[in-house]
Recover the amino acids of this structure.
């Protein structure tokens, strides 16, 4: 939902006759949101996507269904995703770590390529590419990805993930039950991204080529499309390749945005995390922390404290996924860590880091944050890879590194 796009051929008027090269009438398909009130795209299939001839049940424990942790005492958490060992394709190797009614947060670490496609009927998906390069093969075309991209897949879009040799990917995934979109704060009344937003229309990449069927790549019938709805998977078997269109146009399609294209805002004194806002869902936001100059106020001996102040986020749970940079300000935190700081209790920099931050002028941290209004519940998978002493690591006076702005 960035701007209108067209790929391939479409007729001048919607809902009119439109033929393939042999004169056969093509099947128009309207991919609509919010009933028929919201954004939409119109696609033209060679074979109607409704020609499924069987439906099978499928369960992938840890993904669908996932198991909530029974008891979750309120304290700060550290989930070590680097200890998560997974095997299989991009669905078998997906695990839900945290969830509430608005968002699910998962890791995906595929080791095997799969001919099957997947469509998430529960919500939009926002992948963050932690590692790897490759492409999303989608109904709307082929969308290449590279390290540290966000990749947005609209609800109910069939896709699968391929990767380059030697570049097996790892992803953090946000699934937004209602939607994930560009925040209204960064759009003007015409829908254009504002000039003071932290990115521009030019930073977003859409599919550049349509997906076409190749037997060597996609196999033979029956073609499998796995659909998720209410956290239940069904496999739909098609006698024809179900993800091929001759063209489409509209506002709904997958897109990519690289976090390194995010333009951070800086100030004389510390600005709240709000200024790192990147995407918004229903009752949650996703923010980007990128390498940047930090707060530079100085008046005589009085200087800015770049390290964030301690705070109790009384309305929001907060997670931070640490990607790259110097995280020594948080003991035990490494690239691939997720911290969860729940609403209701205070958090902030570890002892020592607050003082050490005075006088620093840059931070190298790269991290993705998600704030939610509703409490995030852990799954049993997350609990298995949890650092269970993390909430006690503020107690002593031992300090960390000098790249202190990473603590929040
Ligand atoms: Fe915070």
């Amino acid at each position: 939902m960035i701007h209108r796009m067209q790929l391939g051929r479409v007729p001048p008027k919607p809902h009119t006759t439109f033929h393939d090269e042999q004169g056969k009438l093509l099947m128009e398909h309207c991919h609509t949101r919010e009933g028929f009130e919201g954004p939409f795209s119109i696609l033209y299939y060679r074979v109607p996507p409704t020609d499924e001839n069987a439906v099978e049940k499928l369960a992938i424990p840890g993904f669908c269904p996932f198991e909530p942790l029974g008891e979750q005492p309120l304290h700060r958490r550290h989930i070590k995703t680097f200890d998560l060992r997974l095997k299989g394709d991009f669905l078998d190797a997906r695990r839900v770590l945290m969830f509430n009614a608005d968002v699910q947060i998962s890791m995906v670490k595929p080791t095997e390529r799969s001919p099957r496609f997947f469509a998430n009927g529960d919500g939009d998906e926002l992948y963050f590419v932690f590692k790897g390069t490759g492409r999303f093969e989608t109904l709307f075309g082929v969308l290449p990805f590279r390290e540290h991209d966000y990749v947005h897949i609209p609800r109910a879009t069939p896709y699968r993930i391929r990767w380059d040799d030697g570049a097996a990917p790892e992803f953090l995934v946000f699934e937004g039950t209602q939607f994930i979109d560009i925040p209204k704060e960064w759009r003007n009344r015409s829908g254009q991204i504002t000039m003071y937003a932290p990115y521009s229309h030019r930073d977003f990449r859409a599919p550049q080529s349509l997906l076409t069927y190749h037997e060597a790549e996609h196999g033979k019938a029956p073609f499998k499309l796995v659909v998720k709805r209410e956290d239940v998977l069904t496999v739909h078997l098609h006698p024809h390749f179900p993800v091929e269109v001759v063209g489409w146009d509209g506002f709904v399609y997958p897109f990519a945005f690289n976090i390194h294209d995010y333009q951070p805002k800086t100030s004389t004194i510390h600005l709240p995390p709000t200024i790192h806002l990147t995407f918004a869902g229903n009752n949650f936001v996703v923010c980007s922390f990128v390498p940047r100059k930090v707060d530079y106020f100085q008046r005589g001996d009085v200087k800015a404290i770049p390290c964030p102040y301690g705070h109790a986020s009384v309305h929001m749970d907060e997670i931070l996924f640490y990607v790259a940079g110097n995280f020594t300000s948080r003991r035990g935190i490494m690239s691939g860590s997720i911290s969860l700081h729940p609403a209701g209790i205070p958090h902030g920099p570890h002892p020592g880091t607050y003082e050490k931050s005075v006088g620093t002028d840059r931070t190298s941290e790269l991290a993705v944050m998600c704030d939610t209004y509703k409490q995030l519940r852990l799954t049993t998978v997350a609990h298995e890879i949890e650092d269970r002493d993390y909430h006690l690591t503020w107690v002593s006076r031992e300090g960390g590194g000098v790249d202190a702005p990473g603590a929040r």
